[in-house]
Amino acid sequence: MMSFGALFDQDSLLWRSLSFAVDVLWLSVLVVVACIPLITVGAALVAGVDMARHLLRGEGHLTGRFVRTFFSQLRQSTISWLILGFSGVLLLASLYVQATPLMVAKIGLGVVWSVLMLWVWPLQAMFSNTILRTWRNALIFGIGKPGVTLIMAATDVAWGALLYISFRYMPQGLPLVMFFGPGLVLVVKVQLLQRALAPYLVH
Q1: 67: Cα within 13 Å, side-chain hemisphere
Q2: d(CA 41, CA 47)
Q3: 139, 112 in Cβ contact below 8 A?
Q4: Measured between alpha carbons, how far is 66 from 63 in angstroms, rounded to an integer?
Q5: ∠ at Cα 38 (163, 159), nearest 5°?
Q6: CA-CA distance, 52 to 1, in Å (whole number)?
Q7: What's the angle, vertex CA 56, arms to CA 153 and CA 78, rounded to 5?
Q8: What residues have CB less than 8 Å from 69, skipping those under 6 apart?
């Protein structure tokens, strides 16, 4: 029978689970804070993906890594974010234009935009490429691996649904969903992507 003291040993399952939960929470806090200026959302997501990768490896100094990645990727990720953000606003605005012949084009552009939003940030964090190559690879992987793309999208939708349910029916649980959500979503996505992209990753 396991002793009470063994439960709090640093190598115990309980201790490692608590440590992992704290790291995920801290990842969420860093990403949320880094997103506050809005223009830095792209850099925050790239840094969040990079931190999640090292978190899953059990490495330390995660805060310093997040900060370094955030600033080193700020220029490229901000350009991508501005383009995707502006085009996203245009796509939303186009929904109010009732033009049936344009519906197919809107759906197609919406799919392309969604694929880019899901794949650009992790690919920028995992590979060193220009913006155009990152976008090209995002479309290639996003369309070529539809299962992975759908699971990532479902993860975002699930978190959004939990936010809505918490806000509507359980407001006392909203802070927990808000602050654990971003980090947990990133960890799930990174774990999925590392398996899907294993042949292309250099360890």
Answers
A1: 4
A2: 10
A3: yes
A4: 5
A5: 20
A6: 35
A7: 55
A8: 46, 47, 50, 51, 125
Question: Length of the chain in residues, anyone?
Answer: 203
CA 96 to chain CA mean position, Å: 29
Cβ atoms of residues 48 and 31 within 8 Å: yes
Q: Rounded to an integer, what distance in angstroms lies between the CA atom of residue 43 and that of residue 21?
A: 23
- Tens digit of each residue's pLDDT, the chain (203 residues): 445 455 555 566 677 788 888 999 999 999 999 999 999 999 999 999 999 999 998 887 899 999 999 999 999 999 999 999 999 999 888 877 766 667 788 889 999 999 999 999 999 999 999 999 999 999 999 999 999 999 999 999 999 999 999 888 888 888 888 888 899 999 999 999 999 999 988 75
> What are the structure tokens assigned to 187, written together?
């960890």
Residues contacting 32, CB < 8 A, separation 6+? 178, 179, 182
Task: State the first-to-last Cα distance of the chain, in angstroms, to the nearest integer.
Answer: 39
